[in-house]
Amino acid sequence: MTFRKSTIPKYQQGAQLGFWNVREYVLFRDGHICQHCKGKSGDKVLNVHHLESRKIGGDAPNNHITLCEICHKAYHAGKIELGQKRGERLKDATFMGIMRWALLDKLRGIYPDVQNTYDYLTKCSRIRLGLPKTHYIDAYCIAGNHEAVRLSYYWYHKQVRKHNRQIHKLKILKGGIRKCNQTPYMVFGFRLFDKVICKGKTGFIFGRRMSGSFLVKSLDGEKISAGISYKKLKLIGKRQTFLTERREVVLPTHS
Ligand SMILES: [Zn+2]
Ligand SMILES: [Zn+2]
C-alpha cells in the first residue's frame, strides 16, 4: 500500500486513537510486557509508570512505560535503574501509523467494504452539514451515510477503572504496616459505579464514605447528590467496566 506522506494526519493529539485511556494504550504498545525485565520476573501484575513525574512530564503516552510490579517497586526503592528515558525509543506516532494499517487489514478480512478515513475528512463533512463537534456527531460524519434517519437518543459509554490498582501503598509505614490503597470493595452493600436511583434520577455511585453518605453523579458529571444516605438509594444495576447512560439529542436541522 502506498500513500503520500502529506495525507497522514499528525498523531500529536491522536496517539491513543481508539484506546480508552493512556494506560490501556501504553500496555498495548508495550505488548503487555514489562519493559525492564521483559517478563523474566514472572510477575503478571503490570503497572504503567511515569518516566518523568506527571507534573513535569505530563500524561502523554511517551512519558509512560509498562513495568511489572516487581520491577516497578524495585525502581521506586532505588534498587534498579531504567535504561529508558522519555520518548527515546517509544516512537508513538510511528507506532500508530503502523497500527492503523494493521488494523485496517484485519478489518478488511472480516468486512469487505471497510474504508479508511481521516480526521480532516470528518471535520470537513461536519462543517459542511453545519453540525457541532461531539462524539456522536463525529460517528455520524465518519459513517458517511448522511441520508440515514437519526434517532433522538444515543447511548453514552464511559469506561471506569477496574479493580486493578495496587492493593497497598508503596511506602511501608513505621512498624511495618502496609497501608491499604483501596476502600473496601463493598460499603453498605454498594460498590463504586453501581447504577442507582437517587432523588428520582438515574445516576452512578462516584464516592462512598464509611459513614454511609454517598456521592451520586450522572455520567456527564452532574451531581445528583453530594451526600445521600445509602438507605435512600435503590440499586438498579451492578457496576460494570462500561457505564451506560441513555441521552436524548436535540437533532439539528440542516438542509
Ligand atoms: Zn519486570
Ligand atoms: Zn512509577
Summary, kept brief:
With 255 residues, the chain is of the alpha+beta class.
State the helical fraction.
10-25%
What radius of gyration results from the CA coordinates?
23 Å
Q: Which strand order does the major sheet show?
A: 9-8-7-6-10
Q: Mean pLDDT, nearest integer?
A: 76
Report the end-to-end length measured between terminal Cα atoms.
Answer: 38 Å
Strand content: 15-25%
Outline type: flat
Low-confidence stretches: 1-18
Ligand roster: zinc ion
Structural class: alpha+beta
Say how many strands there are. 11
**Overall tally of structural domains:** 3
The sequence of SSEs as H and E is HEHEHHHHEEEEEEEEE
Q: Can you tell me about this structure?
A:
It is a single chain. The protein is of the alpha+beta class and 255 residues long. It has 3 domains: 5-92, no CATH class; 117-150, no CATH class; 168-247, Roll (SH3 type barrels). It contains 6 helices and 11 strands. The chain has helices at residues 22-29, 54-57, 69-76, 92-110, 119-128, 135-143; strands at residues 46-50, 64-68, 153-159, 168-172, 178-180, 195-198, 201-208, 213-217, 223-229, 234-237, 242-248. The strands form 4 sheets. It has a 5-stranded antiparallel sheet with strand order 9-8-7-6-10, with no helix packed on it. Strands 1-2 form a two-stranded antiparallel ribbon. A two-stranded antiparallel sheet has the order 3-11. β6 (195-198) and β7 (201-208) form a beta hairpin. α5 (119-128) crosses α6. The protein is flat. The relative contact order is 0.10. Mean pLDDT is 76; it is low at 1-18. The structure holds zinc ion (ZN) (2 copies).
